[in-house]
């Protein structure tokens, strides 16, 4: 296949894909062609230049280093790969991730980790609005701040924010856990501050460790989650919506 | 002798009719809007308001039962490496596991496969019952993304990006606590027993430009193999169709207001969206204006009941129709055999629409293990296949009478309308005239 013959290897034996030379289609097809046990476990993508859908739908435990910034949906539906973006990410990075991890060295745009079912998304800069929207099991760690309406309708998983959160955090939240170290501009409908119990401190320490965060204690965070008052419709709660 | 004034006959208001009065009393007693399943129940201009002309001196017919009349259709030939080929132009619309029982989903798969057509998942993910029994399965990509995962995406035969549906354009799904069983809760990553309200908007894109990027992502994940449908409710069919085409859709699905839902507010169902008949010509016009008619396929749904409806929709320019409510009736929904139980629920066979309550006597719109035993997936699937075959034969009968050797050769010129409204909506002449309201400036 053309994709294989055109790919080159650097000295560390990573397979290098230069998106200035090869197409996005060739890159994703080569990643999808990987089979369990393949020895092509290290990949490097050059010149992403804001391309959309870089390394989407990967289902093997390979590492992919993307050298530059990406457009929409980088690592979408990732299932097992470790993807590092050495730049910033456009909207929907890691959307619907199943497993594996995605690390963004820069900032992330809207909807980071939307509907993610599993795995770990680390954003070393800031994340924009609707971070973790509708999350369903993913763990998200943001070193900077997050924008408004984050964790909207978040169902499960954990969102950790070392900085501040914008307005309407956790609006209509279900069972996801939110940990914010800085200030929260406002909480959304049915989202409340909750007691940080020992099991939460332990959970949070584990998340910080997995994200490679050091020098910050779980006790510096506040926990937020669902008041569960909107779980079954009650007309007397209609003003909350 | 005293004169007695003659009384007038008691007269009920046409505005405040019995149903309206009962709804006011219900609202006053409960303080919550009425929720129900199904589509618009009000009288609307529909396919019944159209007639075929048949053959005459200027057109000659094909021999019924003898001369071939093709019914097959290919969906997704624009971009997909593996388009779908169906034997009949009637597909089964998306209905969720959760709203429907597992055996009902299995029956839909069995019936559709026997008849040579596809079924569609719904707002609850893909079940083994349906994947296992449906040869051609369309996997819906919904705002809630319940159960969405790349493995199911790859084992689907097509992907349908759902923007809206005819019963509630602009509304999200709803599944009340009674139906959130352990299995449904697990598939949706939700606590058991809560009232589940799906999002009305997709979480990671808004507008046609984002949709184009989203479709690119889905194509990349599935290596450009699967046809990608975009489904919209019958709101602005001309622009929605044009924008879906622009965004890269292989197939556009337009669902009129008679199209059913598992549950939403009555006020939404009856007052938002356009009738199916009013949606078809604008959608076809959009495709024609873009030079994409027959290149991007158009599926229309909402109130399709028989082969005449199929033939009329195809004559107006659609490539296939989709059925939901009618398919459920073929499985056994609202069957008079359960009349005593419908009465206990305060309703009658034919009117039962409290599908969200999960107490369906027919075992279809329920998650109750005892009730769902009442539906035999094999027998119900057979009934659905029979029904689909009858619809197809009926449509062929009409097409042959119009001299067409393919259902897709039917054309607007084969039709007239019985009412001015239908003539205007369908863009065909009022019967007995050459007048198409709205054409030529009057």
UniProtKB/TrEMBL annotation, chain A:
Gene3D superfamilies reported for this sequence: Glutamate synthase, alpha subunit, C-terminal domain
Residues annotated as domain Glutamate synthase alpha subunit C-terminal: 59-187
CDD domains, per the entry: GXGXG (cd00504)
A Pfam entry, by short name: GXGXG
Family annotation (InterPro entries): Glu_synth_asu_C (IPR002489), Glu_synth_asu_C_sf (IPR036485), Glu_synth_lsu_3 (IPR012061)
Recorded GO MF terms: oxidoreductase activity
Name of the protein this chain belongs to: N-methylglutamate synthase subunit B
Lineage: Bacteria, Pseudomonadati, Pseudomonadota, Alphaproteobacteria, Hyphomicrobiales
Automatic annotation (TrEMBL), chain B:
Domain annotation Glutamate synthase: ranges: 75-332, 356-404
One Pfam family linked to the record: Glu_synthase
Signal peptide: none
InterPro entries assigned to the protein according to its UniProt record, in alphabetical order: Aldolase_TIM, GltB, GltB_archl_type, Glu_synthdom
GO molecular function, one term: glutamate synthase activity
Highest taxon of source: Bacteria
Keyword terms of this UniProt record: Oxidoreductase
GO biological process assignments: glutamate biosynthetic process
Keyword Oxidoreductase: yes
UniProt KW Methyltransferase keyword: no
PANTHER family attached to this UniProt entry: ARCHAEAL-TYPE GLUTAMATE SYNTHASE [NADPH]
Family: Belongs to the glutamate synthase family.
Protein name: N-methylglutamate synthase subunit C
Species this protein is from: Mesorhizobium qingshengii
